[in-house]
Amino acid sequence: MNAPLDKSLREALEQASLEDRWTRDRGPIYLSGTQALVRLLMLQRQRDLASGLNTAGFLSGYRGSPLGSVDMTAVRARAHLERHHVHFQPGVNEDLAATAVWGTQQVNMFSGAKYDGVFAMWYGKGPGVDRCGDVFKHANAAGTSPKGGVLVAVGDDHGAKSSTLAHQSDHILKACLIPVLFPASIQEYLDLGLHAYAMSRYAGVWVGFKCVTEVVEASSSVIVDPERVRIRLPEDFAMPPAGLNIRWPDTPLAQEARLLDYKLYAALAYCRENRLNRTEIDSPEARFGIVASGKAYLDTRQALVDLGLDEQACRRVGIRLFKCAMVWPLEARTIHDFAEGLTEILVSAERGTVPMDRRRQARAARNRQVRREGRGRMGRAAGKLDSAGGRRVFPCDRGQGDRGPHRQA
């Protein structure tokens, strides 16, 4: 028999509704990953109002699994979006949607603007990202509004569960010089999403937001609160006098110099200051390290538990675990500190080699430095291949679908 409920808890349960996902300003709500993307826009508007900014939101893209229901979700929540001054405009195709998003960052370059800035979100599946490369490159080079910002929600179907190809957008976004965040849970869709907009405004870049099938199509209870995320702007980055945001007039070569010389480093400084990448489990005598991002991070945690290695056991046997939320560009200082003193490092990732490639580059540069200074070297790095780049650590099992916790263990 169930114990009697506290009166306040019973009243809260009686008043609970699925509409809370749109109407509740603070507290626990239940929603899917797709709904979290839509709710994020409302949350950003609330944070801006609290900061004295009168901003508006803009949502546009083209549906495709695993982001096949964003438009339907936005239509159903249209009244709530309008209440938060968020406009939804479905794209005729991915390119036109991206171009419209680019236009939102130009609103305050002309007189007569009704808002202080417009924060925008583009959404589309992996193949749509492929075809938008030209728009992404131009728009990212041009920059973002200091009170706007752009989040690029990319739907990646790693297991080709509803696609003709298994696709990964990291490499396309990297080619466009767009930083990539990889949330591990629906809660992080809200938390990292707010960081994405803050980073976009600060560094003047579009920010990629990697949404994989297993997370974006799931549902979960999360905590919603406009003040939940504490955003800190870097103090160790020398911002150029004119800033990094969009401007007119501007030239292609000036945009390129600003992007390569400042913007990406500003994004790295933001990542470091807000500890987006961080050591989650440490050990005083750590010898073996694991680097994981996104869903693979949760799979790694579960695999460790399945092996009988909780946090206390990991510390006892010398295991150090690093959570990588910004997978590109990889912030070097944090990963250096994590790898110091380790003899072996395993990079756990579902597909591709973006974190692994950056990790090996960071290791090589660090070891060159420590040899000059006479200090200890960083550990060997292994991912799908061993540290020599030849023998496979994990079997070639792409055709078997998702590598879940049991297969990692």
Layout: helices, strands, pairs:
Layout: H1 7-15, H2 20-23, E1 27-32, H3 33-50, E2 55-61, H4 70-76, H5 78-83, E3 86-88, H6 94-104, E4 117-125, H7 126-131, H8 133-142, E5 150-156, H9 170-175, E6 180-181, H10 186-203, E7 207-212, H11 213-216, E8 219-224, H12 252-273, E9 277-281, E10 288-292, H13 294-306, H14 311-317, E11 319-324, E12 326-328, H15 332-339, E13 344-348, H16 354-373, E14 380-382, H17 405-408
Parallel strand pairs: 2-3, 2-4, 4-5, 5-7, 6-7, 10-11, 10-13, 13-14
Antiparallel strand pairs: 1-8, 6-12, 9-11
Helix pairs in contact: 3-10, 10-12, 15-16
The number of distinct structural domains comes to: 2
Cα separation of the termini: 38 Å
Which strands sit side by side, in order, in the main sheet? 3-2-4-5-7-6-12
CATH topology of the largest domain: Rossmann fold
What is the CATH superfamily label of the largest domain?
Thiamin diphosphate (ThDP)-binding fold, Pyr/PP domains
Strand content: 15-25%
What's the count of strands?
14
Approximate shape:
globular
Helix content: 40-55%
Mean pLDDT: 88
Rg, please?
Answer: 22 Å
- What does the main sheet amount to? 7 strands, mixed
Q: Label the structural class.
A: alpha/beta
CATH top level label of the largest domain: Alpha Beta
Question: Which residues form runs of ≥5 with pLDDT under 50?
Answer: 368-376
CATH architecture of the largest domain: 3-Layer(aba) Sandwich
Distinct helical segment count: 17
